[in-house]
């Protein structure tokens, strides 16, 4: 699934790869309704020990899925991919776009966080599901979505931990009752940890043709969120 794909890109590919465009419309379902990650048009491989990628012309991605620090640093990282994954988790579970205004809040993550603070996080689940879901799984997905949406990049879980949480092999992540304030990261010159777009020898576009897409159909792509009528919380 999507979590396995991200873990592979971040940790097991020959070079670390950052997807840079995690969103529901880039998640497809195969014939068995397993989630698959697609659209590697913005993905970049990081050379050697570099941990981030930046382009001189600015931040790439889709609003609502871009981590807040990217607008300040201009850098995409594995942590910013995790932020996008969290936005997708909340979108699928709630049936609402990340920028949806709800309950007096300006975006989905803030509304879900308020429900978590009030001890009624399951009230954020897509109302069209009725009671047709497993409460423990739903709460795990919502809390993980919030953990991945932490404004502070270093507080977000790594993909290995995300896999374990989704599989239920480790406890649900701790999520503070109040959403932490975003702290602007220190801004310095692009150093050895950053690959930039003008250093063509250090970056490699990752095309979808490098991956086996046979049997995939974009049935999960909808004008609203990327879920189907056969709803599943499985994003592993």
UniProtKB/TrEMBL annotation:
PANTHER family attached to this UniProt entry: PTHR27007
This protein's record includes keyword ATP-binding: yes
Domain Protein kinase as annotated: residue spans: 1-175
Gene Ontology MF terms in the entry: ATP binding; transmembrane receptor protein serine/threonine kinase activity
UniProt KW keywords: ATP-binding, Kinase, Nucleotide-binding, Receptor, Transferase
The keyword Phosphoprotein appears for this protein: no
Family matches, as Pfam families: Pkinase
Name this protein carries in UniProt: Receptor protein serine/threonine kinase
């Amino acid at each position: 699934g999507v979590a396995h794909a991200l873990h592979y890109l971040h940790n097991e590919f020959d070079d670390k790869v950052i997807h840079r465009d995690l969103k529901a419309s880039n998640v497809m379902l195969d014939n068995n309704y397993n989630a698959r990650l697609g659209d590697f048009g913005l993905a970049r491989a990081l050379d050697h020990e570099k941990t981030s990628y930046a382009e001189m012309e600015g931040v790439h991605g889709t609003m609502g899925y871009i981590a807040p620090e990217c607008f300040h640093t201009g850098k995409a990282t594995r942590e910013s991919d995790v932020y996008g994954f969290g936005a997708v988790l909340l979108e699928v579970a709630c049936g609402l776009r990340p920028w949806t205004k709800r309950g007096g809040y300006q975006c989905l993550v803030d509304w879900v966080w308020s429900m978590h603070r009030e001890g009624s996080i399951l009230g954020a689940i897509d109302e069209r599901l009725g009671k047709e879901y497993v409460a423990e799984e739903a709460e795990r997905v919502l809390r993980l979505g919030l953990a991945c949406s932490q404004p502070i990049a270093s507080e977000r879980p790594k993909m290995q931990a995300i896999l374990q949480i989704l599989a239920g092999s480790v406890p649900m992540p701790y999520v503070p009752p109040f959403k932490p304030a975003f702290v602007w990261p220190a801004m310095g010159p692009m150093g050895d940890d950053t690959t930039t777009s003008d250093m063509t020898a250090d970056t490699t576009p990752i095309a979808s043709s490098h991956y086996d897409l046979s049997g995939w159909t974009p049935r999960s792509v909808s004008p609203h969120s990327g879920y189907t009528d056969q709803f599943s919380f499985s994003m592993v």
